[in-house]
């Protein structure tokens, strides 16, 4: 690696060097390499940057770490720049430092590994600088309206100024220190300073977490150049640390997606940026968990244990708050910082600790009580939706979900954010307490009521004695009502029986008949499947028998090989034993010769010759064994190299196949593109039929009926989602033609040959055939649409023949369309669309098949939404084909490079094989030569001198004979050993064949079991289906039987009804009976209303609705209840007649005594009631104060909201409906531009996405001005905004943060940082007030590592 230059002079050595960088060119993950050149060296914020220009005209400024990763090596005739010292590139980032935190003016610095670039988006031209400046109307000041009193101020007193006061105090303090801070910029005179115009940026995917340079360092440089034209830091001072209650840092361990992560926050504005899934929101959940929120209040989990990272046992969260100034909480104990530590166990349970500035635990009573006291002291309420606007809350307010009541949501956040809801709840609680007091007063009233009831009871007794005559009239009325109620009941029963017998019964019989037809069709299908399973099981049984016989033969072969090995082992053992005997005999003879050699010199000489000969033979055999080992080693190496070369050959073949496939795809795409371009928007071009259709038109008179085709040009779909699915099923016929007769087919065939129209068929169809009938039972069930349902053929003449052809060939009425792959699997595996549906296709073109007992899935990767021939827009298809051509060309180049490298590797491996073959042959030649030399040595016996002594001569002869036999048996032993090795290999090979046969047998046996189980399952289903069919038959027969019984019961009911009418007419006429029923109904209603009035008076129960009251009366108007009432009246009459002899004077005396006691109790009750009324009046005054405060808050929020909306030239106001708990934002978009033409918009869905998002952010800021929490958190506030509204919303946020300097703002966004830089620069130029870089701290979060 080349060392990093330390100075600009050293860096200039790389000017003119070439670079090659990969960029992401679209959202589908395709990449392309671009060549470039280093043109000059520039310096930003003290960092050396390399200005690159690419071949497509794009430019880029990058640091050394990125530059070295794309730098191309120098040619051999050039010399590299001199050594500049050790490299400063880091080897990597640990998990704890995997996040990047930089100040606003230094967003260009990064600490990363060697970049792994991805393909870029094409650069977007920047708008003119004037378009980034705010309009003159954007400086409209806030209305001169003081902020309303807040409920939070009653707790904190004077610990924090109001929003307006805080901003004024901050400006005054900043004005007193104006000019005290000087900035010194270092740099070399010969290095050009970059500006907004000469530092273009690339939209890159190399470092996804790196902030864009627009408005960053370049913006700071522009601000520095304009410093002389306006005052700096006018009315504003940046704090070095936070105020009391501000968050200093957040650290988590094993929390959600983070293993170990720490976030340092700035004292004013902290902007946290990161891609989705990087763990931004996890930091917010950590803050909520530490600062008193429950798991449910975070809206992310039901218990704290869910926050523990998967695989860990415990999570820890640390949140450090500033504790300085006069608002400090117990500064003597905690110091300038308070750290809240919360540990969470995965098994359940949490623990809270409070740490001082040194990290030591502080114990003041219970930690939780101390924590809540501290939060109350700092006015921190993380459950307030405006203190922490979570990602879910931001999505809820910024999305266009029409399923939610947005007005209710806005009202709720207004009430909760301003703490008015808490005040309202307190008022309601006081009302409940007052109601309890009233309840106790009601108990006293109940006692009075009981006395009054006793008094009324005595009065009733007197009254009943005088009203006994009225009960007689009531009894006559009820007698008439009872008999005619019986008549009405019989008539209603006859009507119900008639409806059941004439309507519902036949309908139910028809339903059972249809069910039996469907079950019969399902039974036929299952019987067909059972037949197929029987064939498969029989075939598997034959295969099992064949495999079993094969295994038995192989086992016999193993036994034969084992017997042969045993025989060879015995031969080798016999040869070895015989050789050992000869060697013993040789030793004996040598002993005799040794004794004789001391006497006879010739014997000694002969013995020496024989020993030397034997030693030579032994040495030669050792060399021969070594040669054998070399042969085996060389053979093993050759076989390994051969296997490697074969794998490379296979890979080379696969590579060539991929190249061939890529070339075919390229040619197909090119041919399709040429056809579309030649057709000039006509769909015929997609099928290459333009020339053929021209010939058909020219020869139209020669055809008996006009040909139909290509078929794909006639077919479309009702929903574009199913275009790929339709082409997957019908793709083989889209280029085909339909004609009416053979003569037309012959003529069309000649025209196809003349036009060069190949790969198409001609189908003869009778144009006069009617449409095929499609029974409903053939359609897919279970809610799956059929392919036939989505096909559209607009041509009237072609519709019937074409649909008939598609039904005949593809059975499109039985093809089920599945939304997802899982639902497609359910069609073939679980018969989700019915047993008659054996083919399904999903939206991506994946097909799901079932045939007999087999099921399989086929994925078609060729057809997609980009090249679908059934697409309606040929322009889009042409653009897609061009993009596919570019991608395919790039992929083809890469495949050819891979193939070239693979061919080179294979050639090198073949060279290694040749060398290994040569070594193998040399080893075999050496082995052969040594074996030949050994045999010659054995054959060339030594010449032994004759010995004169006859006895010695005999011994010498024996020695020579034994020596020769030893040589022969050694050779025999070698032959036996070789034969044994061969037999051992044969045994091993036979065992391997047996194992392979057993494995195949086991697999076949398992498959047979599966098929048998499938057959059993079909048999069981067939049995169940038959049982269902029998049950349906029985139920239908039962329905028919019940229907007959119902008709007989209807006749009997009619007879009973006639008898009842005859009996009732003997009592009174029908008119009198109806009048009696009406009067009885009125009496029952009067009684129930009296009862309701008493219940409402005594128990406070609500009245019944008119409908409920009517239903209760109807229930009581039946003959049984009326007869019961008649019986009760008769008993009352008897009872009153029995009591009629009582003394009325005694009842009057008892009434007088009870009246005096009741008067005394009423006086006491009146006194208590007066006290309760006074409390009620106090409660009413409190409610009025609440309404007054509510009105002030509404005015303030309205003014704030109007001010924020005027920044975008909109007019806005807020309307509250407290009765319905609704809040409406009224907006006049661009009212200042349109004037009187502007209209009020109350439904935000009418606005654009950016306007709606900006309006909601303005509303949240307006409401947030009423809260006293020392910090504000917003998660993904700009996720649905367009760039202009995102910039204006960011300007509004920054201006709000500057005006409310006492508050700390924490903003999370998945967007890049360019909007923040542009917003900051615009705000500086608009307000003529500098905003130092330290005012905004940016934090870039990379995705958390496991």
Automatic annotation (TrEMBL):
Any one GO BP annotation for this protein: chromosome organization
Subcellular location: Chromosome; Nucleus
Annotated stretches, region: Disordered: 74-233
Broad class of the protein's primary localization: nucleus
A GO-annotated cellular component: Smc5-Smc6 complex
Keywords: ATP-binding, Chromosome, Coiled coil, DNA damage, DNA recombination, DNA repair, Nucleotide-binding, Nucleus
Species of origin: Chlamydomonas reinhardtii (Chlamydomonas smithii)
Coiled coil stretches, renumbered: 509-571, 603-654, 871-919, 959-1042
Family annotation (Pfam families): SMC_N (PF02463)
Similarity-based family: Belongs to the SMC family. SMC6 subfamily.
Name of the protein this chain belongs to: RecF/RecN/SMC N-terminal domain-containing protein
Domain of life of the organism encoding this protein: Eukaryota
Residue span, RecF/RecN/SMC N-terminal domain: 247-1314
Regions of compositional bias (Basic and acidic residues) in chain numbering: 181-207
Ranges of Low complexity composition bias in the record: 163-177, 208-229
GO molecular function annotations of the record: ATP binding; damaged DNA binding; single-stranded DNA binding
């Amino acid at each position: 690696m080349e060392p990093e230059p330390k100075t600009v002079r050293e860096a200039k050595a790389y000017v003119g060097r070439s670079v090659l960088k990969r960029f992401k060119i679209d959202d589908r993950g395709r990449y392309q390499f671009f060549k470039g050149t280093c043109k000059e060296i520039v310096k930003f914020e003290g960092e050396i940057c390399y200005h690159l220009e690419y071949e497509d005209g794009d430019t880029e400024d990058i640091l050394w770490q990125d530059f070295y990763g794309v730098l191309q090596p120098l040619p051999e005739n050039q010399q590299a720049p001199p050594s500049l010292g050790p490299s400063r590139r880091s080897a990597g980032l640990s998990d704890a430092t995997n996040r990047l935190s930089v100040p606003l003016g230094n967003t260009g610095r990064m600490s990363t590994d060697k970049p792994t670039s991805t393909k870029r988006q094409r650069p977007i031209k920047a708008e003119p600088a004037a378009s980034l400046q705010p309009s003159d109307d954007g400086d409209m000041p806030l209305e001169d309206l003081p902020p309303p009193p807040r409920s939070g101020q009653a707790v904190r007193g004077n610990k924090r100024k109001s929003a307006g006061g805080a901003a004024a105090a901050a400006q005054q303090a900043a004005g007193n220190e104006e000019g005290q801070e000087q900035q010194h910029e270092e740099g070399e005179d010969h290095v050009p300073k970059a500006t907004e115009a000469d530092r273009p940026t690339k939209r890159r995917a190399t470092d996804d977490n790196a902030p864009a340079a627009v408005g960053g360092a370049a913006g700071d440089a522009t601000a520095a150049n304009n410093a002389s034209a306006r005052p700096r830091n006018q009315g504003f001072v940046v704090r070095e640390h936070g105020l009391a209650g501000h968050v200093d840092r957040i650290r988590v361990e094993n929390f959600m997606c983070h293993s170990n992560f720490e976030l340092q926050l700035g004292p004013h504005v902290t902007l946290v940026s990161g891609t989705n899934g990087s763990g931004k929101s996890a930091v917010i959940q950590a803050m909520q968990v530490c600062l008193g929120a429950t798991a449910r209040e975070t809206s992310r989990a039901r218990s704290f244990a869910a926050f523990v990272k998967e695989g860990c046992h415990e999570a820890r969260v640390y949140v450090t708050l500033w504790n300085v100034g006069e608002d400090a909480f117990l500064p003597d104990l905690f110091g300038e910082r308070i750290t809240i530590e919360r540990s969470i166990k995965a098994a359940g349970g949490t623990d809270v600790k409070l740490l001082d500035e040194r990290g030591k635990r502080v114990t003041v009573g219970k930690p939780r009580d101390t924590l809540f006291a501290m939060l109350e002291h700092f006015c921190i309420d993380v459950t307030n939706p405006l203190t922490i606007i979570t990602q879910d809350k931001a999505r809820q307010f910024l999305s266009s979900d029409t399923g939610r009541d947005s007005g209710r949501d806005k009202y709720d956040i207004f009430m909760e954010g301003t703490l008015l809801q808490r005040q309202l709840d307190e008022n309601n609680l006081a009302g409940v307490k007052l109601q309890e007091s009233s309840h106790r007063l009601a108990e006293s009233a109940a006692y009075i009521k009981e006395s009054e009831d006793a008094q009324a009871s005595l009065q009733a007794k007197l009254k009943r004695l005088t009203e006994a005559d009225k009960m007689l009239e009531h009894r006559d009325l009820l007698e008439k009502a009872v008999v005619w109620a019986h008549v009405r009941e019989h008539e209603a029963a006859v009507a119900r029986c008639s409806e059941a017998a004439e309507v519902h019964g036949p309908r139910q019989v028809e339903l059972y008949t249809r069910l039996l037809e469907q079950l019969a069709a399902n039974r036929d299908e299952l019987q067909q499947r059972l037949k197929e399973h029987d064939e498969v099981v029989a075939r598997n049984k034959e295969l099992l028998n064949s495999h079993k016989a094969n295994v038995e033969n192989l086992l016999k072969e193993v036994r034969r090989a084992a017997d042969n090995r045993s025989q060879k082992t015995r031969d080798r053992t016999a040869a070895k034993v015989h050789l050992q005997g000869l060697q013993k005999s040789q030793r004996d003879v040598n002993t005799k010769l040794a004794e004789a050699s001391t006497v006879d010199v010739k014997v000694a000489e002969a013995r020496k010759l024989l020993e030397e000969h034997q030693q030579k033979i032994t040495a030669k055999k050792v060399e021969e064994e070594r040669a054998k080992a070399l042969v085996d080693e060389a053979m093993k190496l050759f076989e390994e190299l051969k296997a490697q070369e074969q794998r490379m050959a296979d890979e080379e073949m696969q590579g060539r196949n991929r190249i061939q496939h890529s070339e075919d795809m390229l040619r197909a795409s090119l041919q399709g593109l040429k056809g579309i371009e030649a057709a000039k928007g006509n769909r015929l071009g997609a099928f290459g039929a333009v020339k053929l259709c021209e010939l058909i038109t020219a020869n139209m008179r020669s055809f008996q009926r006009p040909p139909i085709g290509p078929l794909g040009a006639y077919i479309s779909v009702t929903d574009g989602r199913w275009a790929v699915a339709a082409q997957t099923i019908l793709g083989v016929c889209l280029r085909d033609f339909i004609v009416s007769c053979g003569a037309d087919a012959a003529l069309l065939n000649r025209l196809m040959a003349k036009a060069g129209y190949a790969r198409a068929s001609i189908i003869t169809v009778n144009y006069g055939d009617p449409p095929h009938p499609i029974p409903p039972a053939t359609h897919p069930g279970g809610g799956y649409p059929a392919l036939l349902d989505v096909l559209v053929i607009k041509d009237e003449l072609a519709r019937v023949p074409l649909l008939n052809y598609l039904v005949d060939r593809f059975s499109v009425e039985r093809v089920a369309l599945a939304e997802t792959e899982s639902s497609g699997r359910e069609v073939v595996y679980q018969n989700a669309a019915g047993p008659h549906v054996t083919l399904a296709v999903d939206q991506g073109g994946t097909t799901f098949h079932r045939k007999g007992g087999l099921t399989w899935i086929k994925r078609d990767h060729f057809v997609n939404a980009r090249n679908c021939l059934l697409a309606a827009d040929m322009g889009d298809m042409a653009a897609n084909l061009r993009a596919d051509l570019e991608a395919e060309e790039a992929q083809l180049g890469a495949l050819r490079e891979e193939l070239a490298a693979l061919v080179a590797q294979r050639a090198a491996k073949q060279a290694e094989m040749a060398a290994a073959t040569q070594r193998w042959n040399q080893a075999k030649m050496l082995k052969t030569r040594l074996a030949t030399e050994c045999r010659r040595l054995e054959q060339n016996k030594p010449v032994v001198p004759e010995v004169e002594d006859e006895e010695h001569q005999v011994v010498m002869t024996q020695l020579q004979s034994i020596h020769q036999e030893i040589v022969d048996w050694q050779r025999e032993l070698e032959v036996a050993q070789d034969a044994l090795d061969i037999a051992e290999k044969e045994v091993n090979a036979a065992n391997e064949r047996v194992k392979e046969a057993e494995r195949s047998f086991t697999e076949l046996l398992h498959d047979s079991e599966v098929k048998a189980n499938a057959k059993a399952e079909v048999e069981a289903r067939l049995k169940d289906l038959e049982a269902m069919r029998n049950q349906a038959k029985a139920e239908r027969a039962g329905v028919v039987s019940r229907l007959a019984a119902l008709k007989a019961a209807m006749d009997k009911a009619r007879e009973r009804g006639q008898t009842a009418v005859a009996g009732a007419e003997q009592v009174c006429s029908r008119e009198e009976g109806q009048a009696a029923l009406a009067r009885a109904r009125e009496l029952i209603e009067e009684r129930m209303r009296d009862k309701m009035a008493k219940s409402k008076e005594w128990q406070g129960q609500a009245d019944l609705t008119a409908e409920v009251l009517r239903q209760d009366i109807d229930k009581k108007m039946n003959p049984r209840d009326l007869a019961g009432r008649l019986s009760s009246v008769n008993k009352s009459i008897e009872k009153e007649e029995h009591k009629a002899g009582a003394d009325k004077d005694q009842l009057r005396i008892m009434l007088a005594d009870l009246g005096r006691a009741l008067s005394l109790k009423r006086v006491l009750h009146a006194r208590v009631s007066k006290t309760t009324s006074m409390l009620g009046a106090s409660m009413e005054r409190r409610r009025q104060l609440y309404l007054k405060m509510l009105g002030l808050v509404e005015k303030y929020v309205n003014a704030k909201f109007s001010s924020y909306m005027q920044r975008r030239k909109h007019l806005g106001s807020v309307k509250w409906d407290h009765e319905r708990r609704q809040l409406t934002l009224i907006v006049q978009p661009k009212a200042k531009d349109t004037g009187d033409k502007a209209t009020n918009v109350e439904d935000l869905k009418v606005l654009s996405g950016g306007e709606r998002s900006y309006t909601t952010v303005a509303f949240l800021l307006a409401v947030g001005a009423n809260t006293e929490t020392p910090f504000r958190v917003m998660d993904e506030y700009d996720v649905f905004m367009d760039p202009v509204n995102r910039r204006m919303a960011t300007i509004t946020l920054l201006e709000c943060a500057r005006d409310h300097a006492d508050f700390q703002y924490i903003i999370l966004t998945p967007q890049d940082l360019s909007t923040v830089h542009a917003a900051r620069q615009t705000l500086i130029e608009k307000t003529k007030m500098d905003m130092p870089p330290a005012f905004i701290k940016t934090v870039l979060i990379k995705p958390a590592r496991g």
